[in-house]
């Protein structure tokens, strides 16, 4: 394999951070796909012409950022949304009872449209560019708890249809990863309190005017590229939004 030279920058960047940047480029190009094992530290050190310690430090940081997963005695793997441990990283809703409940995504609608200015701005595309809009309910123990409206860049998610969503047996992010090669690696959320309107109340099975959490999320893939804008309404009758601060 052709060796890759270390990039030089006018501003100082530690060597391990430069290696991390090159590894991120490999992930973005899908050289190593989600769930696959990456080359050993020795192989990467030879490829990038640096010490194994430098590679190890880059991998340690990427593991801390949930980009890679170390498996004792097996090696280092690209993190995947199909890993059960990753599920609650992007879903902070937990039952008040404290029990763990499996979530079921029930699609309501999926259609193609032209991006309006707000969606275009968030997704980093031009107004009028194609977007895919998804409305779905997230159910716990058969009860609807979240109503989501999701905007996705049409060029990236071409081929996403209502039938694809309905037939899927995996989480939405796992579907995006496996079918469209898009992995969500981080998200920004804005949360506020709202009252349920009539339509939302009917879908979530609550009374009109009931308090809901409005959660607006922008999700990013490699290269800090926004690839999802989501507006969710959360019922808090039997669930709460949980976030651990460390």
Summarize the structure.
With 246 residues, this protein is α+β, with helices and mostly antiparallel strands.
Question: What features would you describe in this structure?
Answer:
It is a single chain. This protein is an alpha+beta fold. It has helices at 15-28, 41-48, 52-64, 117-123, 162-167, 172-180, 198-204; strands at residues 68-71, 75-78, 93-95, 103-114, 130-140, 143-153, 186-195, 211-221, 225-235, 239-241. The longest helix has 14 residues, at 15-28. The N and C termini lie far apart (41 Å).
In whole angstroms, how far apart are the ends? 41 Å
Helices, by number, come to 7
**Mean residue pLDDT:** 90
Spatial extent as radius of gyration: 20 Å
Specify the helix fraction band: 25-40%
Sheet with most strands: 6 strands, antiparallel
- Helix-strand category: alpha+beta
């Amino acid at each position: 394999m052709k060796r890759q030279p270390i990039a030089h920058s006018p501003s100082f960047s530690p060597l391990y951070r430069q290696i991390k940047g090159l590894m991120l480029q490999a992930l973005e190009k899908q050289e190593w796909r989600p769930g696959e094992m990456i080359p050993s530290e020795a192989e990467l050190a030879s490829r990038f012409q640096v010490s194994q310690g430098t590679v190890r430090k880059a991998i340690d940081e990427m593991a801390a950022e949930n980009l890679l997963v170390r498996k004792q005695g097996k090696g280092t793997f690209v993190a995947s949304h199909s890993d059960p441990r990753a599920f609650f990283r992007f879903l902070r809703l937990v039952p008040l009872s404290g029990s763990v409940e499996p979530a079921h995504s029930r699609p309501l609608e999926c259609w193609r449209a032209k991006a309006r200015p707000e969606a275009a701005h968030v997704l980093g595309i031009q107004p009028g560019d194609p977007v895919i809009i998804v409305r779905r309910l997230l159910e716990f123990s058969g009860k609807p708890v979240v109503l989501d409206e999701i905007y996705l860049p049409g060029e990236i998610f071409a081929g996403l249809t209502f039938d694809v969503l309905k037939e899927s047996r995996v989480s939405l992010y796992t579907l995006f990863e496996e079918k469209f090669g898009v992995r969500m690696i981080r998200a920004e959320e804005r949360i506020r309190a709202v009252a349920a309107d009539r339509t939302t109340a009917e879908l979530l099975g609550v009374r009109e005017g009931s308090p809901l959490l409005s959660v607006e999320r922008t999700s990013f893939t490699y290269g800090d590229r926004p690839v999802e804008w989501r507006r969710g309404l959360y019922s808090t009758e039997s669930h709460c939004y949980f976030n651990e601060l460390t």
